[in-house]
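Hi W., the uracil complex you wanted:
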Amino acid sequence: MTNDEIAKLTEDIVICEACHLKNSRTQVVPGLYGPKNGLCIIGEAPGYYEDKQGIPFVGRSGKLLDNMLSGIGLEREKDMSILNVIKCRPTTADNNNRTPTNSELKFCGERWLFKQLKLLSPKLIVTIGSIALRFFIPSAAVTKYVGKSYDTDFGIKLYVTYHPAYILRNYNLMDLYNEHFEGIKSLYLNLLNQNEITSDNKRSTKGQGEQKSLTDFL
Ligand code: URA
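Structure:
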């Protein structure tokens, strides 16, 4: 990824008018970029505050997310990218936040999120909440998948955890949420170490086997 490539992609995202969500947004929320080949946190869609500021996870959920990340020694942007599957706020008729539909997820996710991931090429994706998970694994129920990692068809490891808004409503799950973030940290460190060992020994598996890459999905 060059800075130019990501800047060009972001310019395209922020002027997107490809679907009806252009009518409900104040502005597009493209996401925040961290290092390439790093960690990428993926939520569902901007809410009221994100739509006003153009930045993902700035409301109450965002504060909890930042606390969870700082608990494992990580900081948004410096250490990771934070993206949403959908870039524009979906609203109800009376202007409240609304859960995106499956077709909105597919349309926006395939149009923009996949391209962002292709450029960022993360080692680990963390989906937070059932909606982001549904985009990657449509049949998955978050309650069955949380706290574990999965291999995706496009070759990036995916860890599943709860949305911070869900934890704010179910505070009894806070200990478990802490465990998930510890799990994210150790998985991520393992993936970084594996990569170092592989490149040290010049044992790259690139080109072997049936592994697909994001390019196959674009
Ligand atoms: N919830 C999300 O999933 N994303 C945001 O950016 C804010 C709240």
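The two ends are 16 Å apart (CA to CA).

W.
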